[in-house]
Design a protein that fits this description.
There is one protein chain. By secondary structure, this protein is an all-alpha fold. The protein contains ten helices and no strands. The longest helix has 41 residues. The radius of gyration is 23 Å and the shape is flat. It starts with a helix and ends in an 8-residue tail after the last helix.
Length: 275
């Protein structure tokens, strides 16, 4: 190694150090942005749940102003190549916040849902950039697998919500649709629990048990209001699971520990095999 250093030009060594430093700077910026966007996501969630009954109150207006200010700070601090991304986020957030005070309850929820989805996709994009700068391709692939399973679960939840709305509207064969979508959603939840880097919560298990009851029930046994509540609870649980995944993925020590644990499990011998 000392011989290699002796014959390597000084400028090449300095270039290598500079590139390494630049790479680490980018990773740190991505990590900071992911954390800021996660905070913004929870700010939007809190606004949704806390002020749905009083959208024009001074407290609700203050919360929206805080979100605006937070978005502007992120746009100011981002790098030049990211400016279009955060400019679009700012514009969409402003459009949503301006419309919220005069919305009906269903529209209120719909606007928050679209805004959260937009934030989640931006977080995913930056998370991929962060992981691409790491040394481990396996970690990127693990996150990609989690993300796809998480998104599949969210889409299944949306179909469950649509089936619930048809049940509320009294559409034909709507209960059969609710039962079918419950089975599919429950299967997605099981897949997500297996691929997640963190342990699923007790709330996740409770919702899983509630879907067991739905699948085994007959039409009329489960009130539509209970189905809506289950879906709302699942939304929060999935958000927490996504947030926990990001916590682990953006912490090098936790990520390395998690990766080693998975490698160890995969390396264990098959107990069915004879010695």
């Amino acid at each position: 190694m000392s011989l290699l250093r002796a014959i390597t030009p000084t400028w090449l060594i300095q270039l290598g150090k500079s590139m390494s430093s630049t790479k680490e700077t980018r990773r740190e910026q991505y990590r900071s942005q992911i954390n800021s966007l996660r905070s913004l996501l929870w700010m939007v969630h809190e606004h949704n749940t806390r002020y749905v009954r009083c959208p024009q109150s001074p407290q609700a207006s203050k919360a929206r102003d805080d979100i605006r200010e937070y978005c502007e700070e992120m746009q100011t601090s981002c790098s030049n190549p990211q400016r279009p991304l955060f400019r679009v986020l700012n514009a969409r957030m402003e459009q949503a916040l301006s419309a919220l005070p005069n919305q009906t309850k269903p529209s209120w929820y719909a606007i928050h849902h679209r805004t959260s989805d937009h934030l989640i996709y931006i977080i995913d994009e930056i998370a991929r950039s962060y992981l691409a700068e790491s040394k481990h391709d396996a970690m990127y692939e693990e996150y990609q697998a989690f993300w796809q399973t998480w998104i599949d679960t969210k889409e299944s939840q949306l179909r469950f919500e649509q089936a619930t709305m048809r049940l509320i509207e009294g559409k034909m064969a709507s209960w059969q649709s609710v039962s079918l979508q419950s089975r599919i959603l429950q299967k997605r939840m099981h897949q997500l629990s297996l691929i997640s880097s963190s342990e699923v919560s007790l709330a996740f298990d409770r919702i899983d048990n509630q879907f067991d009851s739905i699948v085994q029930s007959k039409e009329g046994d489960v009130p539509a209001s209970s189905l809506v509540k289950i879906s709302q609870d699942l939304s929060v649980v999935l958000l927490h699971l996504f947030d926990q995944e990001l916590t682990i993925r953006t912490n090098d020590a936790l990520m390395e520990k998690n990766h080693k644990a998975k490698t160890t499990v995969h390396a264990l011998p098959d107990p069915n095999q004879s010695a």
